[in-house]
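User: I'm putting together a teaching handout on how multi-component assemblies are represented. Below are the sequence lines for each component of a complex, exactly as they appear in our records. Could you produce the 3D structure of the whole assembly as structure tokens, so the students can see both representations side by side? Please keep the chain order the same as the input.
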Amino acid sequence: DADVTQTPRNRITKTGKRIMLECSQTKGHDRMYWYRQDPGLGLRLIYYSFDVKDINKGEISDGYSVSRQAQAKFSLSLESAIPNQTALYFCATSDPTGTNYGYTFGSGTRLTVV
Amino acid sequence: DAKTTQPTSMDCAEGRAANLPCNHSTISGNEYVYWYRQIHSQGPQYIIHGLKNNETNEMASLIITEDRKSSTLILPHATLRDTAVYYCIVRVASGGSYIPTFGRGTSLIVHP
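Assistant: Of course. Below is the structure of the complete assembly, with chains in the same order as your input.
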């Protein structure tokens, strides 16, 4: 099993619908992140969480919300999806006290809003 | 927070060494240089990191200049599967709240 699992892998949804992207990890890391990637661009941070009780906005949090249900689970919600939220979404984890191996990413969720 | 500058794209012949440069002139003394790569639309993958000394692992080598203002990732014998976007990131090694930024990276194309 992958260290960081994202579900679904692909999703097509309609404008105005609420959608949740889920992320779970088996690495035991406290820190989790959601990034968005648009074609030809780097990754932009949406939200991050340093532990279960900690939630922080990233550079592009408008239109998104998150929930950290447990150390291992971090969900991203689009309350009312719009077409310009069509993108590739990545979840990642990190361990600041570990071996400096940085981030571990999931395989991504490709979201299309029509 | 130190920022990085990388060329937008590079190409390399299969079997040859690929040398990917990165400038990080504002790096501070306790910041490490990390390299990741993203193959097609997969999640970025850790490659290597370093502080001062040159580093080598099974994937690549990292050469950091003595003044630490720049570094070079070396793929010694590039293969077609090394075609990817390579990101150079500077961050504090542990603790703190610094969140590194993944810019556009360098798109490396390895051709036959």
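A couple of points students might notice: Chain B touches chain A through 24 residues (CB under 8 Å). DSSP finds no helices and nine strands in chain B.
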